Amino acid sequence: MKLLSVVIPCYNSQDYMRNCIESLLPGAEDVELIIVNDGSYDKTAEIADNYARRYPTIVKAIHQTNGGHGEAVNTGIKNATGMYFKVVDSDDWVDIRAYLEVLKTLGEFVEENKSVDMMISNFVYEKEGAKYKKVMKYDDVLPEDVVFTWDDINDFRKGQYLMMHSIIYRTQLLKDSGLELPKHTFYVDNLYVYLPLAHVEKIYYLNVDFYRYFIGREDQSVNESVMIRRIDQQIKVNKLMIEQVDLKAIKNSKLQQYMMHQLEIVTVISSILLIRSGTRENLKKKKELMKYIKERDEVLYHNIRYGWMGHLINLPGRFGRSISVGAYKVSQKLVGFN
Fold first, then answer.
1. Which residues, other chains included, contact 158 with Cβ-Cβ below 8 Å and sequence gap of 6+?
2. Per-residue model confidence as pLDDT tens digits over 132-184
3. Which residue of 16, 34, 194, 263 has the smallest Cβ count within 10 Å?
4. Degrees (nearest 5) of the Cα angle 233, 270, 305?
5. Are 119 and 168 in contact (CB under 8 A)?
6. CB 116 within 8 A of CB 204
């Protein structure tokens, strides 16, 4: 059995997918690379097939009609045979030295019969044109180089949370959890991270800068202007996170606290983008989102509305909104995101 299955969702990725794939090939026979061509109309399919022919024991090429990023990940999970599972987007890549350390550690889990549901590592914001590259690290909140549980974690900082880039899940956990990401929906990486957490018990943190998260293309889905245009998609994912996990049913208090933290961050991002757009229609949508949360769960609403981030996004009037946007811009500089 392979140690690690890596799904590479590709949609018209001919210009950058080779860099991603080449960074993953050094995993050799320990990995399977599942390239999912999600209905591309450029040379993505041809490139995927070429890699599958050159590396038949490592690379699988799967072609499907366009279903979006989530459906490509679904396909990867269904076809994965490795013990562990990772998503690497086709415009991103991995650091080879850290990658080999990750595989060594996964191999030790298998050899020593350690039960680990989720491995966490660091990721680097590879922002185009930026002189300083922000690294998302977790060494201040997670124990290093030991298997631990949610009871062993410290409180995450406000701008610090788990993203798709930092997580490797045990493959069978994903399959057993019934995770099914929605088709034709952007920003489902939030669901990919969030929904399986309730099934995670054993965790391991490897303090290496593994994943390189490229941001800066104008057409990229995480570009701020693109996110504002697709704000309904962000709100849809935000609501699905609320609907599909009952936080009150999470028995472990530390896990419940962390999931509330992540949900708060996603809601703040939704709200700030709605404010940032400056349109009357989107300001109305922001009110509707908060009303939806209040009607759905009073405790959740109270935590989101009356935490300091909640106060920040609900400052009254045009001047209050300008302060919210200003704080958001400062966060962009400090954290390094788009």
1. 265, 308, 309
2. 788 999 999 999 999 999 999 999 987 789 999 999 999 999 999 999 999 99
3. 16
4. 140
5. yes
6. yes
3-state secondary structure 97-163: HHHHHHHHHHHHHHHCCCCCCEEEEEEEEEECCCCCCCEECCCCCCCCCCEECHHHCCCCCCCCCCC
Contact 34, 9 (CB under 8 A): no
**Angstrom distance (rounded) from CA 147 to CA 89:** 27
Closest CA to 202 of 229, 170, 240, 172: 170
**This prediction's pTM:** 0.91
Provide the b/e sequence for 66-81 (b: ≥16 CB within 10 Å): ebbbbbbbbbbbeebe
316 vs 127: which has the higher pLDDT = 127
What pLDDT digit, counting tens, does each position of 205-240 carry?
Answer: 999 999 999 986 555 545 667 788 889 999 999 999
Place of tokens 């018990």: 201
Q: Quote the pLDDT of residue 249.
A: 93
Write phi, then psi, for 320 (nearest 5 degrees): -60, -40
In DSSP notation, 158-217 reads TT----GGGEEEEHHHHHHHT--PPTT-TTTHHHHHHGGGGG---EEEEEEEEEEEEE--
For residue 232 the two structure tokens come to 């309904």
- State the pLDDT at residue 166: 97
Question: How many Cβ atoms are within 10 Å of 48's Cβ, its own excluded?
Answer: 28
What is the end-to-end Cα distance of the chain in Å, rounded? Answer: 38
- The answer to whether residue 100 scores a pLDDT higher than 70 is yes
Measured between alpha carbons, how far is residue 140 from residues 164, 169, 213, 242, 296 in Å? 19, 21, 21, 28, 34
**Residue type for 220, please?**
Q
CA dist 141 and 121 (Å) reads: 12
